[in-house]
Design brief:
This protein is mainly beta. Helices cover 7% and strands 38% of the residues. The protein contains four helices and 30 strands. The strands form eight sheets. Strands 11-12-13-14-30-24-23-18-21 form a nine-stranded antiparallel β-sheet, with no helix packed on it. Strand 11 and strand 12 form a beta hairpin. The chain starts with a helix and ends with a strand. Bound molecules: beta-D-glucopyranose. Beta-D-glucopyranose (BGC) binds next to strand 25 and strand 28.
Length: 397
């Protein structure tokens, strides 16, 4: 990693070295997002140099603000590097775990904030068969392939362009994955659009096309802590997931194929409860994942438009998040494998359970599970997936 001191200084002090538009000072004014109301006041996206990869590729950081939300996206991995939201008193905090330099992301990141592709979560035995042909993938998680293999979409530099439509402000990210990359068939043209709406909602729209039959399952791997990243455990967050079933896993975290009922188990989040409430009750599935690391089968199924499925409230700050998606599943991961060895953007260390992910997607290992909704994409068809995160605050404790 050859990030220069000057680059790092520019990145950490927020000095925009290559503002794409007029407001170069935006990235250096951390209180602007907090001051803007939840009814608009967007600014054009700004771009700054965030670092340089070993091969000389430049990494940019883009800043977007609208409706009281400020979002920072890296061209490396399409990573959500920070997501700033006001609390019930109007105090802003970054609620997404991550690093303040590109080095952290390249060296050792458990997919903080990243776009995941071509396939979110695990594919058993690192192989699958499609139309009679077997494809071998890199095994990077025991015997399995995780999150697209050793160099997935999280480790690629994306083309980024600002995007604007009506009151929405956003970015369009593009990446072309060559036929055979990480073992997957077909040239996959992927477009991801990050949008902030005038109400401060974050919307992520994914599309992909292919020139050969393949499998696709894209998602975003942001770790949230609505009290602020680096503030400690997420166990007191109250979570609701509209899912009556989940997919239990074997000891390598591959779904067994069963769609088990959540009723009477720690997996029942149909009514809001603190994430930590049933974490220690010894359920064999919780022991297997060292916490929650499971796909929830959303009751609404696969839908053309995003439907509300999740709500989260953090009692101290009052920050709330609602998630609506087109996807049939969500991987709820309670940050179990954070182990106190990574120091985040705030300078504080992340321990197990200091962030949680809600990865809206198709089910893990679908290419090997005929009973699961299909993840096959064929030429002439377009893969589409959308997830909307709405933020707010509740009245008081
Ligand atoms: C997986 C976890 C994994 C984490 C970070 C999640 O999507 O389900 O098992 O540890 O990503 O890699």
């Amino acid at each position: 990693m050859t990030t220069s001191r000057r680059t790092l200084l520019a990145a950490t002090t927020g000095i925009a070295t290559a503002a794409a538009t007029t407001t170069a000072a935006t990235a250096a004014a951390p209180t602007t997002a907090a001051r803007s109301s939840r009814t608009g006041s967007h600014q054009p996206p700004t771009r700054e140099h965030f670092g340089t990869l070993d091969n000389g590729d430049r990494v940019d950081r883009w800043t977007l603000a609208n409706g009281g939300t400020r979002l920072r996206i890296l061209s490396y991995g399409g990573i959500v590097q920070s997501l700033e939201l006001p609390d019930r008193r109007g105090r802003t905090a970054n609620v997404s775990l991550g690093f303040d330099s590109v080095d952290g992301y390249v060296a050792d990141s458990p997919y903080f904030g990243a776009l995941i592709g071509r396939y979110g979560n695990r594919i058993a035995g690192a192989k699958f068969t499609l139309d009679g042909k077997t494809y071998q993938l890199p095994a990077n998680d025991g015997p399995n392939s995780l999150h697209g293999g050793t160099k997935g979409f999280d480790k690629r530099v994306w083309d980024v362009e600002p995007y604007r439509s009506g009151g929405d402000v956003g970015l369009t990210l593009r990446y072309v994955s060559k036929d055979g990359e990480m073992g997957y068939p077909g040239t996959l043209r992927t477009r991801v659009r990050y949008l902030l709406t005038p109400r401060g909602e974050l919307r992520i729209d994914y599309t992909a096309t292919t020139d050969k039959a393949t499998v696709v399952n894209l998602t975003n791997h942001t770790y949230f802590n609505l009290a602020g990243e680096g503030s400690g455990s997420i166990e007191s967050h109250r979570l609701r997931i509209a899912a009556s079933r989940y997919t239990p896993v074997d000891d390598t975290l591959i779904p067994t194929g069963e769609l088990a009922r959540v009723a009477g188990t720690p997996f029942d989040f149909r009514r809001a409860k603190p994430i930590g409430k049933d974490l220690r009750d010894g359920h064999p599935q919780i022991l297997r994942g060292q916490g929650f690391d499971h796909n929830f089968v959303l009751d609404k199924g696969l839908t053309e438009r995003p439907r509300p499925v999740i709500s989260v409230t953090e009692p101290e700050s009052g920050r709330t998040m609602r998630v609506a998606t087109t996807e049939p599943g969500v991987q709820f991961y309670s940050g179990n494998f954070l182990d106190g060895t990574l120091k985040g953007s705030s300078g504080r260390v992340y321990r197990a359970g200091d962030g949680f992910c809600l990865e809206t997607q198709h089910f893990p290992d679908s290419p090997n599970q005929p009973g699961f909704p299909s993840t096959v994409l064929r030429p002439g068809h377009t893969y589409r997936s959308s997830t909307v995160y709405s933020f707010g605050t509740d009245g008081g404790r």
